[in-house]
Amino acid sequence: MRKAYRAAVLGATGAVGKELLDLLERREFPLAELKLLASPRSTGQLMPFRGESLRVEALDEHSFDQIDLVLASAGSSISRVWAPQAVEAGAVVVDNSSAFRMEPQVPLVVPEVNPEAIATHRGIIANPNCTTILMSLAVWPLHQVQPVRRIVAATYQSASGAGARAIAEVEAQATAVLQGKTPPTEIFPYPLAFNLFPHNSELNQLGYCAEEMKMVNETRKIFGADDLKITATCVRVPVLRAHSEAINLEFAQPFNVLQAREILSHAPGVKLVENWQTNYFPMPIDASGQDEVLVGRIRQDISNPNGLELWLSGDQIRKGAALNAVQIAELLVESNLLKPPVPLSAKGI
Question: What CATH number belongs to 131-316?
Answer without folding.
Answer: 3.30.360.10
